[in-house]
Amino acid sequence: MSDKFASSTRFFASRPGIIITGGVIGVFASLLQKFGNPVNMGICVACFERDIAGALGLHRAAVVQYIRPEIIGFVLGACLAALLFREFKARSGSAPIVRFVLGVFAMIGALAFLGCPWRALLRLAGGDWNAILGLAGLTVGIAVGIQFLKSGYNLGRSYATYAAVGWVMPVLMAGLLLLVLFRPQFTPDGAIFFSQSGPGSLHAPLIISLSAGLLIGFLAQRTRFCTMGSIRDVILMGDTHLLSGVGALLIAAFVANLALGQVKFGFAPQPVAHSSHLWNFLGMALAGLAFALAGGCPGRQLFLAGEGDGDAGVFVLGMIVGAGFSHNFALAGKPDAIVDGALSVGGISSAGMTAVVLGLVVCCIIGFTMREKA
């Protein structure tokens, strides 16, 4: 590697590198909201993958259907960085079916809360106090996952494989980019679907969304940015390197939101959020546990998929399928609303509650049964 590349690698591995990355994510998330993305949802990996699932017809919730260019940019930006720094390595074989199941339940938990870890931070930066319950649940879920790691939990090694395996997710994302650019209609009333109202209809201009995604994907691949990893490293080793990037995201987003007039403090009603505290906590506890068992938060899984990790790609596909399940079977959270001048508290259905509890049980079974024996 040339001296120039080596110097760049050292910078991205440094604390200033991870802080700058977190700050860029926070500022761009606030700007994307200003340019048209939903409120407190400038960036949300779970919500955006849910919108993609809807656009492809995997669910028919008409208000959340759009091929989000940010997700495409995350994968392609990470792919570009990996190629440039010679880190693109096709690998797979580490319990892919288990990773798929973890992806499904990670999405069910995230949509019970109505957001991924990034959106939890962005909701807090916008004044939504419900995010505190979500972040607490996320931390508890990750902490439980760490106990499994300490007791020998392991999904097994991934192995170098054919280059084509590593290119599957970048090529799929390029295909999605073509779909959002040309918007083909394959049947008179069928896919590709695009929301005409609701959160799915709110989006920044495509070039801005894609550019932000590419930049964030590039930086996050170089710095290994990961919200789950930040909490894991603090609990396991007392290492705050990744946490400093997550803190920078929160602070940068809050300052940018203040400057843009995008802060509203309180519990209810907050945009695309509910104040059912128990299920905010448990939903993110399920998501955090699934992320810990899979080895990365949903953003990190996208970046890994961009650098050739087929197992991360399987987790991403599991989350997209999980979004279909969540909306087809009414498992996702319902936002708070003002009805006839009175607050109607949202939350999740009895089916959603069952799914969250079932997910916690299944993840614990995976954690217990996939431990290496001494």
TrEMBL record:
Annotated keywords: Membrane, Transmembrane, Transmembrane helix
Where would you find the membrane-spanning parts of this chain? Answer: 12-32, 66-85, 97-120, 132-149, 161-182, 202-220, 241-261, 281-300, 312-330, 342-368
Q: Which InterPro entries match?
A: Seleno_YedE, Sulf_transp_TsuA/YedE
Q: What is this protein called?
A: Uncharacterized protein
Q: Identify the taxonomic lineage of the organism of origin.
A: Bacteria, Candidatus Moduliflexota, Candidatus Moduliflexia, Candidatus Moduliflexales, Candidatus Moduliflexaceae
